[in-house]
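Reply to dn_fold:

You asked what the input looked like. This is it:
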Amino acid sequence: MPKYDYDLITIGAGSGGVRASRFASSKYGVRSAVIENRRVGGTCVMRGCVPKKLLVYGAHFADEFEDSQGYGWDASDPGFNWQRLIEGKNAELERLEGVYHRILREANVAEITGTGRIADAHTVEVDGKSYTSEHILVATGGHPIMPEIPGIDQVITSDEALDLDTLPERIVIVGGGYIAVEFAGIFNAVGVETHLILRADNILRGFDDAIRNTLRDEMCNKGIKIHCETQVNSIEKENGNFSLRLDQAEMMDTDLVMYATGRRPNTWGIGLEEAGIALNDRGAIVVDDTSKTTVDSIYAIGDVTDRINLTPVALAEGMAVTETLFGNNPTSVDYTNVASAVFSQPPVGSVGLSENEARAGHDIDVYMSRFKPMKYTLSGRDEHAMMKLIVDQKSDRVLGCHMVGADAPEIIQGFAVALKCGATKTQFDATVGIHPTAAEEFVTMRQKLPEHDE
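and this is what came back:
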């Protein structure tokens, strides 16, 4: 008789957890189970990247219809039905969840529905029933957090924003990170008066300043009202409307309030500390290079570890854990030059170091181009793109590649490969561009910017 019920139990059926469970079973033939108390697919598929991107696609048609007039199409007002978009999004999520169930079923991964709680180094309890496993993987993700201010119980988060029955005429979004700017772009594009309130002096903290400044200006140009260095002190709701008291006793009225002020790991109430698993000051699970926790038989991946909170990173971590545990090959993930995108309007793509990060450890040259995309020469749209390269003077290696503009995430993905391979500016210059495209700008920038601080 086997010593344990399973070889691997994964708590959390998000992208990383499903990937690890599936490959442990299908590639290595181990007995694997996954525990989930919500929909299979996790934050990205059910409450994040996928449904949000579908709404971004839907909202962007507003610009497409307007731009078409410059290309000979007769002006028309096709109208917009928010409920139809939400219904289409929900149908796609249902399809994807079915795909995930099938993937697990065909890989012979057992699905256990409920909330998993670690009882000891080899035991997980689910609704009073115990399951034992040689190894346990925690992949429970994260959740939105909000400040404790009067009236905060009246607001929504990104979870609820994805399922609104009707659109408000006005919305206030509190926060300046990628979730906030993405939803601001969605609501603004479909005709909602949109205000963005943030405590910082600019949006997208952590990104290169040229990205932050360019996107801020483009968002304002589209009609989004950005209120920097502003805090909400209290919220009141009366007769269906919201009243926000801001700094210096300023008041703001709106129809809906959404908070996007950060996320925290889902580590509370699942027995982690009782089992001896260390958490850091943000409540994230502390792990080593192979994603092992302070308990040898328990590993953790994804947002619950608060390293780089991106779905492809969680997938890579899940694969690495599988290889470490069952492939007799201790494996870690390389977190250098991980590309990221913000599906704002216009979108952002970025890989490598920001200018400020690069200056802290290198003597650098900076190349930057700002231009109106060719598409807008006939449509007349007042929208500009920005591209930026950061180059190490000594080695000529490209340290950072940043873009704001149409198709930025698609373009940056290719350049992420180049940075991963250690490409130099000379190699960028030697690459023949594809004309006419925006992407060719990255291989035709020759003029260094004078020494400057963004």
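The chain has three domains: 6-143+264-326, 152-261, 340-443.
Hope that clears it up.
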